[in-house]
Amino acid sequence: MTSTFDEDNLERLSLKLCRKLTRSTKMEQKAIRTLAIVLVVFLACWSPFFSLNISNALCIRYDHVGLLCRISHQVMQVFVWLGFLNSFLNPVIYTIFNQDFRRAFQNIMKNVFRCCCC
């Protein structure tokens, strides 16, 4: 009688552990996916700026006059603002893909608008 009781307890504990591990694994996968998206967006937003900045520095250093060395100020400004856009996109990405962040962000926004509207 004691052995079946121990086996039942062991089986129940094993199932609980499997559920916890599964839940933990799902949360980790979501976190990895969110971080991967943040990284890709970061690279997409900042790579043009840094690429042009490095090429511009090389052109100045070695007095080149090629096509890459004739970058207009407007193009540089667009790439700077593309980099700034990344700062706007991070909270949007976290809000879309992370429920805890979404709740916290909603609470902050409610408090901000409540204070501003009073």
TrEMBL record:
Sequence intervals crossing the membrane: 35-58, 78-97
G-protein coupled receptors family 1 profile domain residues: 1-94
The name this protein goes by in its record: G-protein coupled receptors family 1 profile domain-containing protein
Chief location of this protein within or outside the cell: membrane
Gene assigned in the entry: 20216334
Membrane topology annotation: Multi-pass membrane protein
Molecular function (Gene Ontology), one example: G protein-coupled receptor activity
Keywords: Cell membrane, Disulfide bond, G-protein coupled receptor, Membrane, Receptor, Transducer, Transmembrane, Transmembrane helix
Superkingdom, taxonomy of origin: Eukaryota
A single Gene Ontology CC term: plasma membrane
Pfam families: 7tm_1
Cell compartment(s), UniProt: Cell membrane
InterPro entries tied to this protein: GPCR_Rhodpsn, GPCR_Rhodpsn_7TM
